[in-house]
Amino acid sequence: MATVQMKVSPEDLSHVPPARERIPEPGIMVIFGASGDLTKRKLLPALFHLKQSGLLPDNFAIVGVARRPLGDEFAADMRQGILEYGGADASDAKLNEFSKHISYYALSFDDGPGYAGLKAELDRIAQEKGIGDDRLFYLATAPEYFAPIIENLGAQGMAQPEKGRVGVVIEKPFGHDLDSARELNQQVNAVFHENQVFRIDHYLGKETVQNILVFRFANGIFEPIWNRNYIDHVQITAAETLGVEGRGPFYEKAGALRDVVQNHMMELLSFVAMEPPSSFESESVRREKVKVWRAIPPLPVNDAVRGQYGPGVVEGQKVIGYRDEERVDPESGTETFAALRLGIENWRWAGVPFFLRAGKRLKKRATEISIQFKQPPLLIFNQVLKGGTCQEIQPNLLTIRIQPDEGIALRFGAKVPTTPEMSVCPVNMDFDYAAAFGKSSANGYERLLLDAMLGDQTLFAHRDGVETTWALYTPILEAWATKNPEVFPNYFAGTWGPDCADRLLERSGHVWRNDLGR
Ligand code: BG6
Q1: Which end of the chain is more exposed for a tag (fewer CB within 10 A), N or C?
Q2: pLDDT in the model for residue 18
Q3: Angle of helix 92-99 relative to helix 72-85, nearest 10 degrees?
Q4: What gap in Å lies between CA 228 and CA 218, rounded to an integer?
Q5: Cα–Cα distance between 324 and 165 in angstroms, integer?
């Protein structure tokens, strides 16, 4: 398909505000579960980049907390993590400077009295470095520790101090069904006010996800056609080529629906479907998202299908099946693929199907949203020339590529030149993020960590939102739990998933769009 590239010139970027407008007050970030992978791979590299970009104050401290006595080993390990995952500009001098801000405190998360020692240590660091009373507690632990940590912080008066701003960042999974999410919310809100709570979903930190809102609400031409009158259906795909990457025990309990659909994909859906918020302020944005989720009627169980990968070939490499992965039950019934159809019962969307699918070990890594428009009311040109053969005219398609080739493309029909008849060929108008703005090295965590330090909750999940999305998926999870699928595995690694996913769309005369990416 022919493609027209769009570029922005450097002058267009002149309005970008100087970074210093968004620097948090001096404070301490305390990372619980600091010896885990997330801290090393994502959090510390993100904090390092923020510091290099001049977005952290001079006086700040990072205190890692975990059970093992690590001492100085911790800073050395984090330094290694920054080198490995943090990009090329991690020179020795920059790392040495950054390492001065890192320290470690050994504590068992359920050792209540031990938190008094942590509090004293934080006060000592604050005094020594001239840091104020702002604290951000980041829970990067296994989910069973969320409640004890929160309770112990509360018991030691660390959640509601007399001075300073205190927040708590909670990693996913936030609960594993509606009841557990409700219980966790109660435990959290018994100690922290909702405006102190940052439930993180790293998809919301992705530039391209935020750009959905900019695309819709900073441009006048799309909103008038963004509704049931013009849109035929919407597909959202989160396809991964990776398998479970040594996370077997976690994934066995999660599965694709809990791992990415209930959270990341629902966030994408809300950005595509929500009404324009009255401002880009936390309350307005979050309220509109919840309204979308609440307008989704209960999902009939047969509108959701599941799959599990068997062995196959992914990107030219032979890979094993899910049941052969390390620490996975050889008869596992856990789904590594989920697809579903849902509707949004409001004036904008009534009757428009939304199809969601997510899976591991698929053919290609691509997270995309495609919005297929209706055909014109009367087709006066009835053929399309593609590869020399005639085909039906294709409807307009707007594709929002979240990753890895970030961009937006609009497909439309163009007259094929020099043919005597009016032959129509689909072409793409393509905006490519990297070509327009240069490749951004930021992972979602940078933006989200900064926002949490600044106390901005816009890009974090709210209590109501989490419970609403769990309420939607819990009946399906329960139905799936009572009945193991008869034939698992049901797709080969390196394909687009099981046949049942295709049949789900065929029922309404649709097909999955599989030519994802550029
Ligand atoms: C995580 C899931 O939340 O998101 C992983 O636990 C998944 O299983 C990952 O691989 C996908 O994130 P991204 O940013 O690579 O699309």
Answers
A1: N
A2: 43
A3: 140
A4: 21
A5: 48
